[in-house]
Amino acid sequence: MSKLAHPDHLIISKAVSQWYRHYNAAWDDDASSFLCDAAIELFNEGCHSVDEMATALIGAYVGLAATRVNAPSSSAVH
Question: Is the confidence at residue 33, as pLDDT, over 90?
Fold first, then answer.
Protein backbone atom coordinates (compact mmCIF):
# COMPACT_ATOMS: atom_id res chain seq x y z
CA MET A 1 0.00 0.00 0.00
CA SER A 2 1.30 3.43 -0.87
CA LYS A 3 1.42 6.50 1.35
CA LEU A 4 -1.35 8.94 0.62
CA ALA A 5 -1.82 12.48 1.85
CA HIS A 6 -4.90 13.36 3.89
CA PRO A 7 -6.85 14.90 0.97
CA ASP A 8 -6.16 11.74 -1.03
CA HIS A 9 -7.70 9.65 1.75
CA LEU A 10 -10.80 11.80 1.49
CA ILE A 11 -11.12 11.08 -2.24
CA ILE A 12 -10.90 7.34 -1.60
CA SER A 13 -13.29 7.47 1.34
CA LYS A 14 -15.90 9.40 -0.65
CA ALA A 15 -15.59 7.05 -3.64
CA VAL A 16 -16.05 3.97 -1.45
CA SER A 17 -19.01 5.64 0.29
CA GLN A 18 -20.60 6.27 -3.12
CA TRP A 19 -20.17 2.57 -3.93
CA TYR A 20 -22.05 1.66 -0.72
CA ARG A 21 -24.84 4.15 -1.50
CA HIS A 22 -25.14 2.95 -5.10
CA TYR A 23 -25.59 -0.67 -4.05
CA ASN A 24 -27.54 0.20 -0.88
CA ALA A 25 -25.15 -2.14 0.93
CA ALA A 26 -24.66 -2.37 4.68
CA TRP A 27 -21.18 -1.59 6.00
CA ASP A 28 -18.83 -4.56 5.76
CA ASP A 29 -15.25 -4.40 7.05
CA ASP A 30 -13.88 -6.92 4.56
CA ALA A 31 -15.61 -5.25 1.61
CA SER A 32 -14.38 -1.85 2.74
CA SER A 33 -10.80 -3.06 2.97
CA PHE A 34 -11.07 -4.62 -0.49
CA LEU A 35 -12.66 -1.49 -1.99
CA CYS A 36 -10.10 0.82 -0.40
CA ASP A 37 -7.26 -1.29 -1.80
CA ALA A 38 -8.90 -1.16 -5.24
CA ALA A 39 -9.40 2.60 -4.91
CA ILE A 40 -5.75 3.11 -3.94
CA GLU A 41 -4.73 1.15 -7.02
CA LEU A 42 -6.99 3.37 -9.16
CA PHE A 43 -5.49 6.45 -7.50
CA ASN A 44 -1.96 5.24 -8.20
CA GLU A 45 -2.97 4.73 -11.84
CA GLY A 46 -4.00 8.40 -12.08
CA CYS A 47 -7.66 8.38 -11.08
CA HIS A 48 -7.92 11.43 -8.78
CA SER A 49 -11.62 12.34 -9.11
CA VAL A 50 -14.15 11.04 -6.58
CA ASP A 51 -16.81 10.56 -9.27
CA GLU A 52 -14.44 8.83 -11.69
CA MET A 53 -13.14 6.53 -8.95
CA ALA A 54 -16.65 5.73 -7.67
CA THR A 55 -17.81 4.96 -11.21
CA ALA A 56 -14.86 2.61 -11.72
CA LEU A 57 -15.54 0.82 -8.41
CA ILE A 58 -19.27 0.55 -9.10
CA GLY A 59 -18.64 -0.88 -12.55
CA ALA A 60 -15.94 -3.31 -11.50
CA TYR A 61 -17.42 -4.62 -8.24
CA VAL A 62 -21.15 -5.23 -8.54
CA GLY A 63 -22.45 -5.67 -5.00
CA LEU A 64 -20.91 -7.14 -1.87
CA ALA A 65 -20.34 -10.58 -3.42
CA ALA A 66 -17.89 -9.05 -5.90
CA THR A 67 -15.68 -7.82 -3.06
CA ARG A 68 -14.98 -11.26 -1.66
CA VAL A 69 -11.45 -12.66 -1.86
CA ASN A 70 -12.37 -15.30 -4.46
CA ALA A 71 -14.21 -12.79 -6.63
CA PRO A 72 -12.61 -12.01 -9.98
CA SER A 73 -10.64 -8.80 -10.11
CA SER A 74 -11.57 -6.05 -12.51
CA SER A 75 -8.62 -7.03 -14.69
CA ALA A 76 -9.97 -10.59 -14.92
CA VAL A 77 -13.36 -9.29 -16.02
CA HIS A 78 -12.09 -7.02 -18.80
Answer: yes
